[in-house]
Amino acid sequence: MRPLSFLYLKYVAETGNGSFLLLEEIMDQLYNSTIAAISTAMSNSGIGIVRMSGPEAFQIADRVYKGKKEKKLCDQKTHTIHYGYIVDGDQVIDEVLVMLMRGPHSYTGEDTVEINCHGGVYVVKRVLELLIKSGARPAEPGEYTKRAFLNGRLDLSQAEAVGDLIASQNEYALQSSVSQLKGNIKDKISEMREKILYHTAFIETALDDPEHISVDGYGEKLKKVVDEIIKEMKRLLDSCDDGRIIKEGVRTVILGKPNAGKSSLLNVLLGEDRAIVTDIAGTTRDVLEEHLNLKGISLNIMDTAGIRDTEDVVEKIGVDRAKEYADKADLILYVIDASRPLDENDEEILNLIRGKRAIILLNKSDLDMQVTKGQKELPEEFPVIEISAKNVQGIDELEDTLKEMFFQGELTFNDEIYITNVRQKTALQDAYEALGRVNDSIDAGMPEDFYSIDLMDAYEALGNITGETIGEDLVNEIFSKFCMGK
Length: 486
Known about the structure:
alpha/beta; about 475 residues; seven-stranded mixed β-sheet
């Protein structure tokens, strides 16, 4: 008998005993249907994989598979690979390798069949259509990972890490996703929940049996535990900005006066002539956004209009947008034309970037430099790098500075946990605030039952991260964002 998911138990608790017919329909949809989908990209390639999962996966595969020795897949051992053909009646569709994995030792926890066929778009679609005709139904987006979650193979943080792993665009995002997939967030959250649950249970037991269990002075003991958990939560919350940058990239804005070399810098970083470069000041009127990867760091980089006073209506809109984007940026690259003295426009830009994370780039260092490192007008708080976009000089130093600025040179995913998910951050923040209320109650000398109320709020909020206290609608929404074959 398959283990019931927590959603099943939750449904029983909320509806009572009067809805067994509906419950059977829900469980039938979850467990008694076999799903199929193409798990590789829909483009011509060497290999295409069509995956089936469910109680009839082996039987359906037998209806379309023909091996050289006429063997039945249902009779074969788990985790074996078989060579043969996919056939539709007497017609051979493709020559294939079929991988068999019996539940619960599979990704979904169910019987799973993966058909490795030739990777032509028409071929894999034909195989999928044949499986559906033979008894499978098309999988919904993310349904394989959803089944893995419902069957206890993954918790929700690990399931979301699967989606992040697929979408990762740099080495750091990849390592972070793999670390989460291994369960580093799950383990930390479970540890916190166990501590909270232990003390909640003690308080509730003591309140039910005050003659035998005393809670005198328990607030001081509880406060030490709560402070320890709050400290751990604060460290996780502080990781959220790094986590977002790891996952989404650094929001980077290139600022400078017209004709300072901003667009030339963008082209050098991209390795192609993406932005228009001319000797005419004010060529860039709007924001041009590109994505690039520098030494493992993803930059969502925006080239903006040169900042100066102008009567041109269109250029003025571009300047206003540049200032607006700079205000929201994680990083500002301030490009100075070092062959000309600083003026009032540079002063305006320097005032604009004060208190922000920025790097000052002295461009055109191949010419006679009028602005140099250590010049008193340049704030000491910012790194200053001499570059030449024309001669591609100083770019390595810029890359090293970026890595040092954001990740202190190196990132390790052995002990550090990075929260990269907004939903997880929100749940963690809710738990953090709930524990803050516990401390407030202790400091105010409130009765112990006030402690348990907020402790349970924290416990449930943390459960939202791992999926143990989350609603079915949100589960469906999360997995609907996955690709079809995952």
